[in-house]
Amino acid sequence: MALTGIEIFKLLPKTNCKDCGEPTCLAFAMKLATSKAELSACPHVSEESKAKLTEASAPPIIPVTIGVGDRVLKIGGETVMFRHEKRFENPPGLAILVSADTDDAEIDARLKRFNDLQYERIGLLLRPDLVAVKAGGDAARFKAVVTKVKEKSSGGIVLMSENAEV
């Protein structure tokens, strides 16, 4: 949860030195609360306060990178819940689903489509980033399908199973 200007003000040195460019520490705290100023602008903030303010302003979900190469997908790290509040920093990922119960010919066809599929829209190249592999009941078959997906696709892999033993 984001801190209010008053909560931030309590952690500031309250010197009203104007070194940050604001007339008072409260004005600086209000700008910090609305993300219109950086904490580094105040040279008098203690390390303890810096740590508390940095922790409080960290995104609720840490950023995670999935995949390697040119199909890397970064998720998380968002500081807002809804796009109209600010904007989302990371675009949503696109994935295809491959079930371990599907026959090998269909899996090969889906992986070929995954590797070949791409659209250009308004100068952006849209293509799937992930292959989601859904487990059936057979652990050996699931492992074989995951190995095949790893060998034949360049995207990240999402493993899906309702049974932890698989």
Brief account:
32% of the residues lie in helices and 16% in strands.
Characterization of the model:
There is one protein chain. The protein has 166 residues and is α/β, with parallel strands linked by helices. The chain folds into two domains: 5-56, Electron transport complex subunit B, putative Fe-S cluster (3-methyladenine DNA Glycosylase II, Chain A, domain 3, Orthogonal Bundle), CATH 1.10.15; 64-160, TIM Barrel (Alpha-Beta Barrel), CATH 3.20.20. It is built from five helices and seven strands. A three-stranded parallel beta sheet has the order 3-6-7, with helices on one face. It has a two-stranded antiparallel ribbon with strand order 1-2. It is elongated. The mean pLDDT is 87.
Protein traits:
alpha/beta, 166 residues, 7 strands, 3-methyladenine DNA Glycosylase II, Chain A, domain 3, three-stranded parallel β-sheet, 16% strand, TIM Barrel, single chain, two-stranded antiparallel ribbon
